[in-house]
Amino acid sequence: MSTFLVIATTFLVGSVCSADEDKSTQEKVVSRTKIKLIYDGDIGPDPCDFSTLSMLHEYHNKGMIDLVGVIGETPDPYLASTLSVYNQLYGNDIPIGAFNSDPDGVKFNDDVKKRYSEAISRYCYTNPNETVYKKFGNRETKTADHVPHSVAMYRQLLSQAADNSITIYAAGQLFTFPALFESPGDQHSPLTGLQLLEKKVKEFVFMGGWFPNSAESPWYQLTDGAEWNWWAFGDKNTTKTTIERLAKMGKPITYIGAEQGPRILVGKELAQRLGREHPTTESFYLFKRTAQVPQDSKDRSLVLKYDNPAFDDIALFCVVEGGVGEYFERVHGRVQINESGANTWLPGEGNESYLTIKIGFEPQLREVITDRITGKF
To answer: Which helix (DSSP H) or strand (DSSP E) does residue 315 occupy?
Structure first.
């Protein structure tokens, strides 16, 4: 754990703007209104979850967003610790809400817990959240029972916000929202959770679904035709209920589907820049699709061989820096979701849209996202 103090110092210095940085980027930072952002995500098994945490903190430290809070969605007792480790690493104290033993928190059924555990075992060499805590945590790192559960944190953050000021970026399963909708008034606000969302949120952005039709993807034969996030480990109606109730509010909703991820591959370059002793790099080494033991070598150490789709990173870039017209095209319409989380798209007008990367812009976008993950602006 002593390694943590060294890398924390290194990256705090590395995140500071240098005099030689691109002036146009700095001018863009100044000219854009700072986004008040709540990040809601599942951290693991995919390494894009960890690289997105790096991006979030880099954007926050750069002054491009006010990262109001981070919410963890999965039933992982080490999830809160990962969020805390990133706070420590980047010198921040962002409020955390996550799964814990509080009986008033989100209720996960046994099937969801089992499928989550199976996914970690199938795709990772070890639980990445547990490994990050054991390798990079210290006595100041918060654990699950030292943070509020996700519904309580949402209520606290929303009650403190100005009306129509919050952007929620959700890049995982949506387990918290149904419980938040039904949450009653408390010490933070007399409003229900649904009323708080209607009053305080300006827009919603989701990394989820597969557009225009999730049934087109062969990836989702084992998830009832639903994209991974929106499948919700088989928890019926979680995604359908959430999206339908939020869409009725009439606020802007943007979707960036998983079909965009494989067009932007990142990993080896960012790992080289961040160094081996960084939790984001660690997540790539723990993921079976990106790191392997060479079969023709006596050294049985894992080697980072492959890049990984930047699913969540792409969407975060859209939230913060825009890029519609430059990197992305917007398609208006309305999403339809069945009880399993599978989606189709109905073109038309309204408050919903999805984004797609413009053909030929993949190399440029890959470079800029790698830059943002590693603190280069």
So the answer is: helix 311-321
Rg (CA), the chain: 20
Answer yes or no: is pLDDT of 30 > 90.
no
Per-residue pLDDT for 236 more than 80? yes
Q: Are 226 and 340 in contact (CB under 8 A)?
A: yes
Preceding omega of 45 cis (within 30 degrees of 0):
yes
Confidence of residue 297 (pLDDT cuts 50, 70, 90): low
Phi, psi of 154 (to 5 degrees): -55, -50
3-class SS at 324?
strand
- Please give the Cα distance from 48 to 373 (Å, whole number): 10
Query: How far does the chain reach from its first CA to its final CA, in angstroms?
Result: 30
Joined together, the tokens standing for residue 67 give 């990262």
Domains (ranges, CATH) in the chain? 3-373 (3.90.245.10)
Distances (CA, A) of 267 to 3, 217, 230, 273: 22, 24, 24, 10
Sign for the CA dihedral angle at 15, 17, 23, 25 comes to positive
Q: What letter represents residue 113's amino acid?
A: K
